[in-house]
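It is worth pausing here to work through a concrete case rather than discussing structure prediction in the abstract. The textbook approach is simple: state the sequence, then state the predicted structure, then interpret. We follow exactly that order.
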Amino acid sequence: MHNVVVGVGNPLLGDDAVGIEVVKELKGKISADVKMAIAGGLELAEMIAGYNFALIIDAFYGEGIREIDVDKYRETVANHDISFPSAYRILSRYIKMPKVRIIGVGIEKTEIREGLSEKVRKSIPVAVEKVMEIMEEEDGYNIV
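Step two, the predicted structure:
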């Protein structure tokens, strides 16, 4: 089974980069493709096209780490792009699209700066563990 894990975020917006930092920790721990994205909805949907399963990790405004319903995913920051759910539905008419699950890591705010706050940095190991659990659920052979 060919799977992908994508960390989404912008490293210039502080805690928004948490998805990228989580996937950096995953490299070498799972056999799925691991990618990083600073992407709007259409680019992200194109990035996962052709896979059997995709797990997306992104920041959300709130507390904790939780699974986010794909239809409620607001991923895109750029207002000139379409939302991920819309892009996914459009592309699925033409090409194979994977089953998708999304993990949100709670943040309080974004601000122009590099690096994560200490609170968000401490959530990375918990997010990594959640990703490992989901990958085991989806395909038990993906853990290295």
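Step three, interpretation. Residues 75-80 have pLDDT under 50 and may be disordered. The first helix runs from residue 18 to 26.
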